[in-house]
Design goal:
Blueprint lengths: L30 E8 L9 E6 L4 E6 L5 E8 L13 H8 L9 H10 L3 E6 L4 E8 L3 H13 L5 H19 L2 H13 L13 H6 L2 H11 L5 E7 L3 H11 L21 E5 L5 E8 L8 H13 L4 H8 L7 E8 L2 E10 L4 H18 L3 H18 L3 H15 L5 H10 L2 H12 L3 E7 L13
Parallel strand pairs: 3-7, 8-12
Antiparallel strand pairs: 1-2, 2-3, 4-6, 4-7, 5-6, 9-11, 9-12, 10-11
Length: 462
């Protein structure tokens, strides 16, 4: 499973929202000084605790005494943007290979052991991190930690497995190419950040995957899968100290390491990118560069996005789908990376309606850029985001994802009260300032469908 420069729509074709910090933790013998405890956000019996081991690995947990499951994952602070050009696709290739077995486990035995306890095991690769996750009943947590630790620290990386998985990934690349609603997000990323690893497809391409050797992948693992670049996150019916002891006892990886050094995009965006192919719909993304993941205004951008196209009551959803029936699926989404960010508007429509959809989207974006949003729109956006966070807290997997991603990306886990306070503190002046700054940026149009790039030559997208 991979993650691209996008946010998926809801199942009914409506939009989704993104909430910064919500997406989208003591010390035992042998551990270092970091030991933070946070009061629970919804009820006082939920605790988030974090411990940094002597080797540099951080263990962060959230106790949920009312559930019977544990969701856990190793988060590695390396993703596809951290690959040298000749290693394009190595992060995702390695993600696949870790499930092929260790010196003591085969891929079949891993699958059988997880199936036998009713668990789930999965992994995903993004631009900036890779995660290996498992969900089991609390009585099977030792097995889960055994398997996750073994595959992370002791992968076999057998030559025959590399060749087998190479073919699987090549099939995955072909499958992605057959999904125009997914492919357009990759084309948008490439146009938004040309000649930069943030703009590259996570999977790699056929040539890069064919060129990667077993030695390339093993060296990539040795360089990046080191303790100071790894977070272990778990949420559910658990004991923090027991999790710390278990992670430490099973650790057999390389010490040191850290988040890879990264550079910001410097090449201007490409205004129009078209992939002509015979599809029933034309898939469009209209967008621009936006705020990076750590920007102080990221909460204002998230709220602005909800009003623009992130909710069923948003301007774009109402104008494009509800009022004109031009698209089944229409939504906007922000994405943030270290030193870079973007905002995109996706729509799928029949070829004869492309110009009208672009006109409506452009007019709505222009209206927000120059006039901002209303106090009522801001109120609705805040209510939606706070409610969405509260609903997400009911699931151990969502809680694990929140604390793991926060720790690996931001180096800390904010309390939910802190996130809510940041959301509630956003003013109309904040959203107006962000609208002017972001929506006024040079615009990019990515298209997949039975159209030619020349058809958009006269259209103003900047």
């Amino acid at each position: 499973m991979t993650s691209a420069l996008r946010s998926r729509p809801a199942a009914d074709g409506g939009p989704t929202a993104t909430v910064p910090g919500a997406a989208v933790p003591g010390v035992t013998a042998g551990t270092a000084a970091l030991d933070e405890t946070h009061a629970g956000a919804v009820t006082g019996d939920r605790l988030i605790r974090s411990t940094r081991l002597d080797c540099g690995l951080v263990v962060v947990t959230e106790r949920m005494p009312e559930v019977r499951s544990v969701s856990a994952a190793f988060w590695v602070g390396t993703g596809s943007r951290d690959e040298d050009p000749q290693l394009w696709g190595a992060s995702h290739f390695l993600e696949h290979l870790l499930f092929k077995g260790t010196s003591t486990r085969t891929s079949r035995s891993i699958a059988e052991d997880v199936d036998a306890v009713g668990g789930d095991i999965n992994a995903f690769t993004t631009k900036e991190f890779t995660a290996f996750e498992m969900r089991v009943l609390d009585r099977s947590v030792e097995l889960g930690m055994d398997i996750l630790s073994d595959i992370l620290w002791n992968p076999a990386l057998r030559v025959e497995d590399v060749e087998c998985e190479r073919q699987v990934i090549l099939e995955e690349i072909l499958m992605r190419a057959d999904e125009p609603a997914d492919l357009v997000h990759e084309i948008f990323a490439e146009a938004l950040f040309p000649n930069h690893p943030v703009g590259r497809e996570v999977l790699g391409d056929e040539a890069s995957i064919e060129a990667l050797t077993r030695e390339d992948i093993a060296s990539f693992h040795a360089e990046h899968y080191r303790s100071a670049n790894v977070v272990f996150a778990a949420a559910g019916h658990l004991d923090h100290d027991a999790m710390v002891e278990g992670v430490e006892r099973r650790f057999s990886g390389g010490a040191g390491g850290g988040t890879p050094a990264r550079h910001q995009p410097s090449t201007p965006p490409r205004p129009v990118a078209v992939d002509r192919r015979a599809t029933e719909q034309v898939h469009l993304i209209f967008g621009m560069r936006a705020l990076d993941r750590d920007h102080d205004d990221r909460y204002a951008l998230a709220l602005l996005n909800h009003a623009l196209g992130g909710g069923a009551s948003s301007r774009l959803f109402q104008a494009v789908r509800e009022e004109r029936g031009l698209s089944y699926c229409i939504y906007s989404y922000p994405v943030g990376f270290e030193g870079a960010g973007g905002l995109g508007v996706y729509a799928g429509t029949m070829p004869s309606r492309v110009d009208e959809v672009l006109d409506v989207v452009g007019n709505e974006v222009d209206a927000v850029a120059t006039g901002g949003i209303s106090s009522r729109e801001l109120e609705v956006a805040k209510g939606h985001m706070v409610g969405e966070m509260a609903l997400a807290l009911e699931d151990s997997g969502a809680r694990m994802y929140r604390i793991g991603r926060s720790q690996v990306v931001h180096g800390r886990v904010p309390e939910i009260e802190e996130v809510v306070a940041r959301v509630e503190a956003v003013t109309l002046e904040d959203t107006t300032r962000v609208a002017e700054r972001v929506l006024g940026n040079e615009r990019v149009l990515a298209v997949v469908g039975p159209v030619d790039e020349e058809a958009f030559a006269a259209r103003r997208v900047a």
